[in-house]
Batch of 2 targets.
Target 1
Amino acid sequence: MPPNGPREPYAGPEAGPEAPFPIKLCGPVIKGFGRGSKELGIPTANIPTEGLSTEHPTLPSGIYYGFVGLSLKSCPSAAAASTPASSSPSTTTTSLSSTNTTSSSSAPPAPPLISIHPAVLSIGFNPFYKNTVRSVEIHILHEFPRDFYGAALNLLILGYIRPEYDYVSVDALVEDIRVDCAVAARSLERPAYARFRTGAWEAWLTDFSWMEGVDAAEVERGVLNQ
């Protein structure tokens, strides 16, 4: 059960990430348990856990924060919807309050094919749902007009927020996740963390050359056991 009392507004030291951070993970977005959008109203992008298991087998379960680089080039529905003006690689950043604006035709503009966003993520088994498979569930702090299964995602984990908890209700779970989102957004706005979306780190976040070796059929089969 989560502890009583107010939550800390920030996570991680002011001076910047400490070991073992930053942690780099890559993977195509796969279908997860299907609960984020439907039950919680908090959509997640799931990636395979192989890289985590191989490179960081002792990383504790819990809630983390960082930046994601996202490429929609390998996502047919998103790529097809992109306008010619947004088809060239571009990088954008958003905060927790950012949303897509609405065009004069009332349809949201197509997202850029390559972008960077702050994110909060869960690594573990989600005690509330009693998962038996460890997962990496990423909530990107940005609104997207549609799902993007198959998209390439680079994840840069910069800090730890809290351990996993069980909850008495879905409402209690959602309330804590909302606080996690706010904590992640504030924490990433600090200069020592914001620098990780620029320079050499930006180059890594937007390098999806590893996707060339990914089998699209394997991505389609990469559905987490429920």
Target 2
Amino acid sequence: MSQQKEKIGVIGHGLMGRGIIHSYAENGFEVVAVKRRDNDTRLEDHFRHEIKKGRLEEEQYTTIKKQITSTTDLSAIADCQLIIENISENVAEKVALFDTLENLCPPETIFATNTSSIPIGKMAKKTKRPEKVIGLHYMSPVQVMDLVEIVKGLETSKETLDTCIAINKQINKVPVVVKDFPGFVASRLVSTLVNEASFIYMQGVAEAEAIDEIAKLGMNLPVGPLKLADLVGLDTALYTLDSLFENFKDPKYRANPLLRTMVESGHLGRKTGKGFYDYNK
């Protein structure tokens, strides 16, 4: 494949979507970023946060911003070679989105999903282009983490796989290919760690800070499991566990009842200001 940079469509301005938009635009790709509402300023807020943290210079942001077209018009991504969806972890919603995209995009367009747990085949079989459907599971925060877990469905073509590997190398990611299976690799590992950490917290063995510190220092993790759960969203963590339990029927994936109670109470982590940590202080 040539090194010409493709035009990338990214759907969703949530935590993962913002990081993906950032990563592609920073590396010279033209990005069409589709959001749900005109007044959604989360992408701009993301870049301001990166500048405040010292991970991005104002001059860099000026250059990056020129690469991004932010819109609520889904048809604006019709001419993108690769489209990456980052909407909620719901099979029906993702399938409905792909169905809409079928009528907008030419047959050669690749449909990628950033799902953390839903089997790629469940979505691919609902399309007219299963060979063009693939999983691109990025790690959070995307603009910092090197790994992208590339999930090859049973129908995913070699051409689609090779294209996605090449494109991700162009944004300085390390692509690791895995087979289509519920939860793939990363989500199964992380979910069991987060779930066990939440059980330890519920049982009163240690406070959240202590659990995370032990995990960081004892396992050399960049961030503790409870802080990570707050970052990605406790609702997402719960959905992933429920999805794994539904697919495997293995009790090790049975979600901690405290985690479920927190989600039902609206304590979703950073995005609501409270999770295992209180971010309103």
